[in-house]
Amino acid sequence: MKLTTSQTVALIVMVQFGVGILSLPSVLAAEAGSLGWVPLLAAGLFVQVAAFLYHFSLGKSTEKNLFLYMESLMGSFLSKCLTAVLLLYFLAGSAIIMRNYVFVLTIWSYHETPVFIIILLVWVCVVFLATCKIHSISRVAQIVFAGVLFLLLLLLWQIPHFEYSYLRFPNTVSPSSIFSGTVETSLSLIGFELILLFHFLLKDRRQTLKIVTISNWLTIGIYLFVVLIVFMQFSPEKLGKLIWPTLSVYKLIEFRFLQRLEYIIVFSWLPLIVITSGTYLWGAGKCARYLFSIKNRWVILILSLIIFAAALMVQRHPDSVLIGDYIGYVGVGAAFFVPLLFLCFKPFK
Amino acid sequence: MKKSLQPKLPAERSQASLITKLCEDHADFKTAVHGEYTVYYFRTLIMNERLQESLAHTPHQIYYEPYDSETVKEKLLKGFCAVVGKDGRLGMLNVSSNPMRDPTPPESEGTIVGPQLALNENLDHSVGLIRQALRTTDLRVIQHKIGTIKRRVRIVYLESKVNKEHLAQISQKIAGTGDQVEYLYDTMLLNELITGHPYSVFPQLLETERLDRICSYLVGGKIAILSDGNPNALIGPHTFHEAFQSAEDYYINWLSGTFIRLLRYAGFIIGLFITASYVAVMSYHYLIIPADLMVIIAGSRARVPFSPLLEALLLEFAVEVLREAGSRLPTRVGQTVGIVGGIVIGQAAVLAGLTSNILIIIVSLSMLATLLIPSFPLSNTVRVLRFTLILAAGFIGGLGLAVGAVLLLIYLARLESFGVPYLSPFGPLRPADLKDSLIRAPFRYNRDKPTSSES
User: Fold this and answer.
1) Which of A202, B81, B310, B398 could form a disulfide with B306 if both were Cys (CB 3.0 to 4.6 A apart)?
2) Are residues B290 and B370 in the same domain?
3) Interface residues of chain B, partner chain A, Cβ below 8 Å
4) What are B209-236's pLDDT values in tens digits?
5) Where are the alpha helices (DSSP H) in B329-447?
6) What is the ipTM of this complex?
7) Helix, strand, coil in percent for chain B, rounding step 5
8) CA distance A152 to B65
9) Domain of A46, in residue numbers
10) Sheet with B139-146, edge to edge strand ranges
11) Domain count, chain A
């Protein structure tokens, strides 16, 4: 069974969302103030360039999977080296996304519950998803996508309380801050590089450019929607003090029968995190299977234990954010470097 | 069978002793002499009038041939009568009595409007009903025999509509069942034997007794499986959303049909999650309830000596006991049990301080919501899963509930019924099929064969 365009788009968008959407507005506000939407659009253009790179580097491949394609381009040794890098990146990505979410849970809801238990519960879901075939993962992504859209639309409940003056042009903003905002945003757009694996599972491989383009601008559009709402809700000074401002907006939404909506949102975010972390783990499994030629079940089991241990090792939230940023930089680098490398080798194929 | 008499020399001349040997020690086996013929039959399997009539008019027209002992046994058990001539030649006469009830309205899938015709336990009659409803040569029937005590199983489909891959898979699975089972007493057993996930709590074949429903699924390219002695047909491949469809949806206005269908989906969600959510909120996340409302709930729970988890489990258990007790009793007694259980015991439990009013409302709502689901197997699945989710919520609150929901979603996404994704058309998204899933679109937009019948 192959992936359709809509399945792949849903999958990439869901992987891109992750925890990033909860914290992105404050990151953008810190870098570019009320002009935070500019770096967002710039990052979209940045990813669009990558989409073209993938299109040209993978477009006419006929191989069964990425690894065979890499072997045909650059030989077995280089191909295995690059796969090892991707394996480490996918594993680290899976672990840190899971750990960051566990921090959200422990900080908002479970102050006294042992972290071990929270990680274990999230980990079980991640592993269960990662053992699925990719079309099953994409089915989950499509359903969760609809649910997430509904949750984000709830933010509109705050329309009466929007403060439009917060969107005024800031006094101090420099091109360098816009640039650093763009880089920060691109960390939240990581996920599109999985097209490297998905491309070979597509029903129609010529759709790669279309898929990355649609998913990129869909994600940017949704981010923009959230960022603008958050910007109109909190002043730039207040935003600087909030770690997850999107959750803080949910906190402000109250009904006569329900308050502190952010509790529900925090739990509702679980499927999203499971998709993000699980898909990276699935990708790591594919890489490991190629490298070590062992059965998939054992690969996933070993890799799962590794991400569980890695998640346990990160003890403090700032460390987790920092590690997440580093992994993000590696991801952004890899997302551009790999297709460029393919393009360099392609003439010699 | 009835050919002009061309006596053949029998392969063995001792047919009479063979039959007698086959059927000795059977109290209902009878031997009678009728003129120059001796007849052997099971008294309980034949229709006496048919036998007398046949013997009076047709014995000389019987086609005599050298039957082997297995065939003789099989035919006698089908209600045939063995006729042995003086020269030892053997013939078989069909004088079977097929006791069956008259066609009745569907008991378990009743509707207020629309056709009221259900299958019954007689396989030939059931297939005949389908043939009468779909008078086309496109309707094909394949027969298999299952079990060591043979039971007939028939696969019914429309040649031009069916997906050949699914047909091959189902046919192969049924044929492969062979002697795995001793006696096929119900189609549910077949359901477990031929589906890809036999231990799953989710039904992978739709069970229905309604003729109109079976015909509409056949026209939609599905495959019906019917068996001897069972009034229900299994329809496959089956997807999750079909469990929320009822025949009535199509006999009422599309808007009302859509509303009722959405209500059923809501019933599924409420039935699964509402009690577990109560436990999670009361045990861990009471901050999400505004203070005014919390005062009322706290007042209601003030005298209850149990934790929310134990309270919910006890009440859910009590409701399940009442439901099970009521469902096994005649209608009037069942109603009394419902009144005594629901009103008297419920009221007394609140007055005694064993449970809160709020939880009684929630648990009742949860049970009623489960009853909204037209598919009985899925409704039972919700009943079982509800307890798991209550335990998960009691263990770690909202996260437990979320973990349960995510695992359930992933499990459903993995599930396939003969290669068709169980969650289709929601995941994978098939926009064309959404017209008859979450909603019931008007017929003019809803004429196409569902693409979910494709893999």
Assistant:
1) B310
2) yes
3) 284-285, 287-290, 293, 396-403, 405-407, 409-411, 413-414, 421, 423, 426-429, 455
4) 999 999 999 998 999 999 988 889 999 8
5) 331-339, 346-351, 357-371, 376-396, 398-414
6) 0.94
7) 50, 15, 35
8) 79
9) 5-348
10) B139-146, B151-158, B223-227, B233-236, B206-208
11) 1
